[in-house]
Amino acid sequence: MQLTVYGAGYLGTVVSACLADMGTPVTCCDYDSEPIIERAQGRIGFYEKNLDEIIRRNVRAGRLMYSTEVEAEVNRSPVIFIAQDEPNSTEELVVRVAAAAKQESVIVLCTPSPVGTAARALDAIRKRGYPQSLVAHPLQLTDGCAVEDFNWPDRLLFGTRDNVAVSALKVIYRPLVMRGIPVIVTGYETAELAREAATAFVATKISFINEVATLCEAVKADAVDLALAMGLDKRIAPRCLQPGVRMGGSFVERDVDALDQLASNHGVSLRVLEAARQVNHALTDGILRKIGAVMNPILDKQVGMLGLAFKPHTSSIAGSASVALIRELAGQGARVRAYDPVAMEDAERELQHTVKLCRTPYEAAEGVDVLVVGTGWPEFRTLDYSRMKELLRQPIIVDTKNLLDSERLRRMGYQYFGVGRA
């Protein structure tokens, strides 16, 4: 079976590579020639854990190809995945794909789209006499672990009432189905709403543990131990129950905003979600107050920032708490030096002259009054903190991810401040 994936952005690149890695020939195509040429030349344009290796392996094996001949690729594929990053003109694109596809083809809509998009797209192609099946197939891929999320999903969700289309998708996803991954078939609206509602619930969960972390600091409890105890409660899972700065990522913010707008359009008040959003956005202020308390005043002080990506294993800075914190610190007159293993290029475009970007974490720490851990990159755990202490003007660390060994650092003479730690 030859598959076609339309979209050469983040989502389409991941989906096409992972489908090819399952052993199926895949062509990733797009009308925009620039990203297609970049992918064909081995340049992805962003960092995603393990993705480079998967693309190289499948291009070498001849299973993964790139093309700008969209109509030709669509015409020879029985299943076409539409995987744009943004739901721009989605209905028009579905019509264009249906016009070029065979009548018996299945069009799979992976683009994160507002509720009602698939139904409108189906209505649009039916009005033009196109008989193809349309499936809403939202994917819960998170930056930094998108490959893992694709290969080990919690479930496969198909929004359709067409059993033939479901059977075709089960063949494509046979390695996952045989592994026992549950398959859920619903209507269009339920599938579309599931993605937004799940993201909003995670945002609420993260906001809750961060509020409790503030209480932990006040009563001298430890939020990390508390999160472990809560996560082992059979009613509560440990994932996304770690205190930190805030929930980030472009897909996350868009899903939460879309769900809030959908509710507003129908006269429904989601008060818990709105409270979670307020807590999430206020967390940066809490970290800023913590930094201000240890180096009062902030004006003319030097701050070293370790990590710029919104989470480890990705170069994305969309919704990054580190970036938001840097802007606030610079606005109060601090001079910021920063380092990230892969997100420097994106950060330079975003922050421009607001921050001095450094080549190593040690350079970022040189001569600063406080060192801030902004992203939970595992390599930050293994830095030489004896050397780091010699570089710092003052041995102060604010760990917004509770990543480091607080007891060890305190024994070394550091003032260590985590989130929700006594």
How is this structure best described in words?
The chain has 422 residues and is of the alpha/beta class. The chain folds into 3 domains: 3-186, NAD(P)-binding Rossmann-like Domain (Rossmann fold, 3-Layer(aba) Sandwich); 194-273, 3-Layer(aba) Sandwich (Rossmann fold), CATH 3.40.50.720; 283-417, Rossmann fold, CATH 3.40.50.720. 47% of the residues lie in helices and 13% in strands. It has helices at residues 10-21, 33-40, 51-60, 70-75, 90-100, 117-127, 146-151, 163-172, 174-178, 188-219, 223-231, 250-265, 271-294, 321-331, 344-351, 361-365, 385-391, 406-411, and strands at 3-6, 26-29, 64-67, 79-82, 106-109, 133-136, 156-159, 183-186, 302-306, 335-339, 356-357, 370-373, 396-399, 415-417. The strands form 3 sheets. The protein has a 6-stranded parallel beta sheet with strand order 3-2-1-4-5-6, with helices on both faces. A 6-stranded parallel beta sheet has the order 11-10-9-12-13-14. Helix 18 (406-411) links the parallel strand 13 and strand 14 (415-417). The mean pLDDT is 90.
Question: Can you summarize this structure?
Answer:
47% of the residues lie in helices and 13% in strands.
SSE layout and pairing:
Layout: E1 3-6, H1 10-21, E2 26-29, H2 33-40, H3 51-60, E3 64-67, H4 70-75, E4 79-82, H5 90-100, E5 106-109, H6 117-127, E6 133-136, H7 146-151, E7 156-159, H8 163-172, H9 174-178, E8 183-186, H10 188-219, H11 223-231, H12 250-265, H13 271-294, E9 302-306, H14 321-331, E10 335-339, H15 344-351, E11 356-357, H16 361-365, E12 370-373, H17 385-391, E13 396-399, H18 406-411, E14 415-417
Parallel strand pairs: 1-2, 1-4, 2-3, 4-5, 5-6, 7-8, 9-10, 9-12, 10-11, 12-13, 13-14
Helix pairs in contact: 1-3, 5-6, 10-12, 10-13, 13-14
